Amino acid sequence: MNRTFITEIVLRGFGNLQNFKFFFVCICLFIYMITVMGNLIIIFLVSTSYRLRSPMFFFLAHLSFSDVLVTSNVVPVMVNITLADGGTLFLTDCIAQFFFFGALATTECLLLTVMSYDRYLAICSPLHYSTIMDHTLCMYLVVGCWSLGFALTLIPIFLIQTLWFCGPNVIDHFFCDLGPLLELSCSDVSIVKYEVLSLSGLVTIVPFVFIVVTYDYIFITIMKITSTTGRQKTFSTCSSHLAVVCTYYGTLFVIYVVPHKENSMTVNKVLSLMYTVFTPLFNPIIYGLRNQELKMAAQNYLFMCRKLINA
């Protein structure tokens, strides 16, 4: 039987917006700019402020960098196809977009896990914290997160390369996510889905369980502190990270772990929009509002800028 293999993918995007698409695009671009600026400010402050030379902020800077890459991988394409009422990508470009999305999502899971381990050492073993969490270990952990994130995502990419894509070539989504992409294949994708589901569980559920366990020990240690002020001060050092973890994993589990076959594609797109556009925005907001050291560093730079302007 003759097969015609597709080379281009058509993304429908949000085709049902009609008269609201310009308003939608403006909102997304505004959020995108705030997200990029906010995370870049965090990276700049951590890189230049001596006050923020600690493992926690070192990991935060890498988390901010991954947030910038995640949203930049999706939002520009989404805006273009929304304005054009659909868009076309080469199949290779579509697979590449999924690869970077999956790699960055995996890296963020690992970075959040490393950050929870850092908070565990700082609170539960404060006397040994500086000895254990030195600069060398921080570098190893960060390099490991980025390397594992990209290496593990190569597995589904290799599996996708074994599939035949012979039509149709239309994805009812605003970016090349794995599920809609596999629906275009005319090969048996059951093995691929099983392998990807197993890998997804490995890189999401295992780190999440590790984070839960570390915070159990953290909360036990905090409750042993006799003074209320001491408990509040100690908890404040990890509350920002805990808020980011809840936001990140909450959206991730709803989209990729919880079965939702009965949900419409519109619901899936809205959930994916929450993860790719809104979740990266929460990182600078949460840390900017709750972390005193970060706020002090930002205020110091604003004060220095005002002095230079008025000089």
TrEMBL record:
UniProt keyword list: Cell membrane, Disulfide bond, G-protein coupled receptor, Glycoprotein, Membrane, Olfaction, Receptor, Sensory transduction, Transducer, Transmembrane, Transmembrane helix
Annotated PROSITE patterns: G_PROTEIN_RECEP_F1_1 (PS00237), G_PROTEIN_RECEP_F1_2 (PS50262)
* Chain ranges of the G-protein coupled receptors family 1 profile domain: 38-287
The UniProt GO MF terms for this protein read: G protein-coupled receptor activity; olfactory receptor activity
Membrane spanning stretches: 20-45, 57-75, 95-117, 137-160, 197-220, 241-258, 270-289
Q: Which GO terms describe its cellular component?
A: plasma membrane
User: Record's superkingdom?
Assistant: Eukaryota
What family, per the record? Belongs to the G-protein coupled receptor 1 family.
Q: What is this protein called?
A: Olfactory receptor
Q: Which organism is it from?
A: Eleutherodactylus coqui (Puerto Rican coqui)
